[in-house]
Amino acid sequence: MCGRYIMAKAIGDLVAEAEAEADANLELRQSWNVAPTTDVPVVLERIIDGQLHRQVHVARWGLVPGWAKELSVGVRAFNARSETASSKPTFRSAVKKRRAAVPVQGYYEWKKEGSKKRPFFVHREDGKLIFFAGLYEWWKDKAGSWILSTSIMTMDSPSSEEPGVLGELAGLHDRLPIPLDRDMMARWLDPEQEDGEGLIEQIRSEAFDVASTWTMHEVDPAVGNVRNDGPELIEPHRSLF
Predict the structure, then answer these.
(1) What is the CATH number of the domain that holds 171?
(2) pTM above 0.70, yes or no
(3) Contact 176/127 with Cβ under 8 angstroms?
(4) What digits encode the pLDDT tens for the residues 50-75?
(5) Environment class of residue 25 by beta-carbon count within 10 Å: exposed (0-12), middle (13-18) or buried (19+)?
(6) Residue 240 lies inside a defined structural domain of this protein
(7) Can you say whether residue 76 is alpha, beta or left, with left for phi > 0 and alpha for psi between -120 and 50 degrees?
(8) What is the pLDDT of residue 171?
(9) For position 115, what pLDDT does the model report?
């Protein structure tokens, strides 16, 4: 699963790495401890006047399908299992027509050891953004306002027998947020591609190659409290256990 991550880059840096455009008034809140239900940047593509535009928007993390009666439906939909998303009522429409990329600087995962949990920070070795495969939806509240929401796709983690960081990820958690390389992101975002199930198979088949460029280190347990938010959270930490 992916339930906490970091997104603290300036909008200009995000736009450049995503090769996207953004509204001049768009504001992003820096956070080293992003949690579900908060607002996060997403990258999506739309056809406007016959031209394809890649854009950065801000969405609520936790997908709310258009048919939902309450916003709270999204609380548990911050991740979408790739194996079942195309058949689940919450996600199946978005799989076909509303696919996004969720940019992160890295994410946190907790390794279970008996009754203890040790947090680790997973990120690219070169410090660049990771783009996770995501979904998005628009939902209209009772006041008539439209809310954009998103979810991050996940899959089974690599085998523990895989070399390098892939084997380490296997020991960290049994689920992996699905990363996209540049070419795969273009295919995933393309609104004219309606074979969502086929695209899911493609991103799953390439995910481990992308993740093999990651690294990870243990961080302070303070990250477990969402009220803690600052760059010190990603500093290496040596566990006493």
Answers:
(1) 3.90.1680.10
(2) yes
(3) no
(4) 999 999 999 999 999 999 999 999 99
(5) exposed
(6) no
(7) alpha
(8) 92
(9) 84
